[in-house]
Write a structure and sequence with these properties.
alpha+beta; four-stranded antiparallel beta sheet; 7 helices; 4 strands; 15% strand; binds zinc ion
């Protein structure tokens, strides 16, 4: 089980990334708050935009450091380094869309010890949530553009190349090239 406190800092192996945190601008884009569950979405608005999602099981109606959570980010660090270890502890949101990335891109290469952690965006986002937890709606600024961007970005996770249901997307680039060569060869034989 992944807990809220687990994503507020980097694991030792990735501790140098702490220096990147001040440069990350995160904006809350979505809050769904019920007595048991809290669902939060954000976008990181630095050079490239990425969408983050955190779902929290509240403890006695409150967000606590020990609250169980599931997370997701659309950045590549999340997909290649952390999605695999997160899947193992059931801390991954919309896991079906990451299974391809986990299988084909070998998070073991990027994160050989399979250390449990999250990308810099989620570290920054969790700290923002924690610092604003006493504010109504977590200090959400109603910003239609931001919400639209968030929806667009988070949809990319289910629509992008990691969609395991698309046969072309399931192929590794090498495999795609091999198939193209084979088709050319067959086409030449038919002539
Ligand atoms: Zn990220």
């Amino acid at each position: 089980m992944l807990k809220f406190i687990d994503i507020m800092r980097f694991p030792g192996q990735f501790s140098k990334r702490e220096t990147l945190i001040p440069n990350i601008n995160i904006e809350l884009a979505q809050v769904e708050d019920s007595p048991d569950k809290l669902s939060l979405g954000s976008i990181s608005t630095s050079s490239t935009q990425y969408a983050q999602k955190i779902e929290v099981d509240k403890i006695k109606g409150k967000l606590e450091l020990q609250s169980p959570i599931k997370v997701q980010c659309s950045c590549q660090s999340f997909q290649y380094e952390f999605a695999g270890p997160l899947l193992k502890v059931d801390g991954l949101l919309e896991r079906e869309y990451f299974e391809y990335a986990i299988r084909m891109h070998k998070p073991k290469k990027k994160n050989p010890n399979q250390v449990l952690g999250v990308c810099k965006h989620l570290v920054r986002f969790s700290r923002l949530i924690w610092s604003r937890k006493t504010l109504p709606n977590y200090g959400l600024v109603q910003n239609v553009m931001l919400q639209r961007n968030f929806m667009m970005l988070s949809q990319q996770i289910s629509m992008n190349k990691f969609n395991p249901r698309d046969p072309y997307q399931r192929m590794d680039r090498q495999e795609l090239l091999r198939k193209q060569r084979e088709q050319k060869r067959l086409a030449a034989l038919i002539k």
